[in-house]
Request: fold
Amino acid sequence: MAIIALATSCKENVEKQASKHLDNAKEAFSIGNFNLAKQEIDSIRILYPKAFETRKQGIRLMQQVEEAEQLRALEYEDSMIVAATAAFEKIKGDYVFEKDERYQDIGLYTIKSQAPTRNIDRTYIRAQVDEQGKMTLISSYSGSSYLHHDWLKLSVDDKYVDTPVSNDRHEFKDLDVCYERVSFINGNDGGAAAFISANKDADIRFTLYRQTGPDSSRPVYRNLKMTKDDRYAIAKLYDLSQILLALEEHKNLRAEAERHLMFIRSKMKDDSTENAVQEND
Reply:
């Protein structure tokens, strides 16, 4: 009998010690300190593995904490989506939107002054942004002969940025004029768009290069000057890209939080997780 009484007393003491952590977790949860609440619940499992009843209560509380976390995340992402949408609505009138429903799943935003039809015989840099915020820079060249250029260097005084070499190139000839279009797709421009945006009020120069070997390259058209209109157009498109990328990211994070919430609530309806805490584990 004495042995049984001692075992019972030890068990009660273990539960009592574990319950202190549970009380701390409840208090932390009540004030919205979810990280501390989870740490206290984890302490029960680590320090008092035989406190089965308290561990069961801890599991129930952990589910409530995780549910509250996802609800908080949803509230935050909703607010960020509203803010990004408002920012987009404020400026979207500055852009031309193009989408052919027969061939395109995602439309494109451009600036009217940079349209190829308005700049047929000009060598310049233009840009476009898709509905998801992915930005593409396009180096457009026209001349009497092909250059076969595939990357650019942009500079302001002693500051400069290089694009990567692009494999997205298109060349054609029309009425003895050679045309080249080199695209740096989905932001893969080495920071060129950000550089233009940051230096839109400066004298930006650019040089066309052709890669001639694995470790070498040479300029094929030097020291071209970006016009103010081009600098400002690309800067405006860069701003649009940042807003749409943020909007897309917050939509994705909201969808992820929604999935987590559904999973947590399904676990809350299922007692098997709680019943997994067995006295012989």
Notes: Residues 1-10 have pLDDT under 50 and may be disordered. The two ends are 26 Å apart (CA to CA). The chain has two domains: 2-89, 95-248.
